[in-house]
Records
---
Amino acid sequence: MSEPVTAGPAGWITLPDLSEKLGVSISKVHQMIREGSLLAVRRDGIRLVPAELVANETVLKHLPGILTLLHDAGYNDEEALRWLYEPDETLGGNAALGLGGDRAREVKRRAQAAGF
């Protein structure tokens, strides 16, 4: 089992709160996690989603593609979380923060390279 990420999100959202924020059922949130469109990890027995990965009433546009690339490269959810939150000032602080802006293409390129 992987160690939990040390540097991480500034905040977390529970699945019921995320369901409400996105305006979808809790089962839809679980489906998004199963399909790899959304990242959730357990902390103290509760599944949580990094708050930065959800903008307004939607998941960040490029997140599902990035998660697919990382999972295809063999990353589990904890490792994907660690990769997204690894400090990197060239991406505005880390890859997760880079997803929300003009650095998204570079984040995707780096995720593609992670498999090699």
Note: The longest helix spans residues 26-35.
---
Amino acid sequence: MSPKPAGFWIRFLALFIDSILSAVLTLIIAVLIGDSTYFSSSALGETSLADSIGGLIYSLVFIVIFTASNLMGSPGKLACRIKVVNEDMTQISLLKSFGRWLAYILSTITLLIGYMMAGWNREKKALHDIVCGTRVVYRD
């Protein structure tokens, strides 16, 4: 029996948790580097150096590397007890994890419909899962 596919809402919760953790990391970086743009109310809509560094670090370390490791998922996915695997339920490679992260662009530019697809199909696959040949399933 194969593990139960993770649907839209649990994946949304994992992304929400990742977003909060990324914001906390960015705040810490802003404080450490003294990024005044980050704390300026007149800079609304502008991207600060801390935003760029924090987002990049979170994406590469906690999404790409964690997903390709034995953890098989970002901190948000770990908290929600779900994991990313290949079609045959094996661990994905670092290259595939990076490609999956890049494929998020496709899920985003389709007015987020690529993400919503996880709620509409039997296998609970988002567009980036289909493109990369991955699945998100519940952990044992």
Note: The chain has one domain: 8-138.
---
Amino acid sequence: MKRVVLCADDYAISPGVSEAIRRLIAARRINATSVMTVFDGLIEEADCLLAAAEGTDASIGLHVTLTGTFPPLTRGIAGADGHFPALSRVVVAALSRRLDAQAVEAEVEAQFQAFLDAFGRPPDHVDGHQHVHVLPVVRKAVLTATARFAPRAWLRDVTPARAALHGFDVKGRLIGAFASGFARDATPFGLATNRGFGGAYDFSADHDFATLLTHFLKGVPDGGLVMVHPGRVDDPLTARDPLTQQREVEYAVLHGEAMPAILDAADVSLALPDGLRNTAAA
């Protein structure tokens, strides 16, 4: 069976999302989650997650966050409103090499430190909210900080597995273009990455998520990663992120009776591949 990482993004963005992810980890319906460290209450969320993950071998990672309608941990990257900049602004500034490298480095390091303070250990893996970790300028800051704070961690390469693309999949292909050379760039730092990525789709469209998930799981190779965004909608989530009801849809499938059959149909075992297990923090 293929060993695949099924990773829930955005842990700690809201209590409803966090609780849903903990339930899925405890039930072994997912085997990884990525934590946002920019919100209040992180220590309590960390304690609850560690308890839910005990004995499961789940990978708990840092979800580097540089975009959103909420404040960063440091001032340098904040806009005039005190919040992170919009994704479009970060992408344009990164591609034109006009993104403030020092401000990015300071924020990334602050988020690593917040993770260490809350969990008492480095993250098992590192990725980025809205995949910002693969962008120019940000990429260098993330690789450098990971090597410094979590040298045994692995990183998410969002280069799509061809078989996991959904139709022409403009979104998946664009993400993959931004990720060009990411695994190569991680190698000199001694950092491993997953092999193949799936899970990108248009959240606003009317999809059968069970069918999509089966497609993604079948499409990634052994050592691949599929991202998901399960959760329960609550007021903090609605205030912080436009992705709301689709999280409920994903949670229903992941926690539902059909999930074991989905894994069987894809011939997938939710287990860290050896190349990632050997680097994961003890």
Note: The chain has one domain: 2-66+124-132+152-277.
